[in-house]
Amino acid sequence: MSTIPPCPKCNSPYAYEDGALLICPECGHEWSADASAQDDDGHIVRDANGAELKDGDTVTVIKDLKVKGSSSVVKVGTKVRNIRLVDGDHDIDCKIPGIGQMGLKSEFVKKVQE
């Protein structure tokens, strides 16, 4: 019987070990063996600089972002407080001052050191 846990992304039982990583052949998801024991969903959200993000963090936008369906733009340097991490393509759910509720991709933000 295998002691390798199932894939946290697709729950496939066919995951295999490749050095320090575990790999799922069905969905291609890779995760570290020690992180699977620590993290329930196996998903760590990182900002543009590679810093790990958590719920409640404050981030800064690093690129002008057009708001879809509007003529508004989220400017570089906009500080967003109290973010919430969600699953999906836009993995940050937040409220931006002057614009309102929206989803952001973690690749366009950097964590503010507090």
TrEMBL record:
Top-level taxon of origin: Bacteria
Q: Which SUPFAM superfamilies match?
A: Prokaryotic SH3-related domain (SSF82057), Zinc beta-ribbon (SSF57783)
Q: Which InterPro entries match?
A: YjdM (IPR004624), YjdM_C (IPR013988), YjdM_N (IPR013987)
- Domain Protein YjdM C-terminal intervals: 45-112
Point out the signal peptide segment: none
What Pfam families does the record tag this protein with?
YjdM (PF03831), Zn_Ribbon_YjdM (PF08274)
Residue stretches making up the Protein YjdM N-terminal domain: 3-32
- Chain coiled-coil ranges: none
Q: Which family does it belong to?
A: Belongs to the YjdM family.
Q: What is this protein called?
A: Protein phnA
Its source organism is Candidatus Tokpelaia hoelldobleri
Q: What is the lineage of its organism?
A: Bacteria, Pseudomonadati, Pseudomonadota, Alphaproteobacteria, Hyphomicrobiales
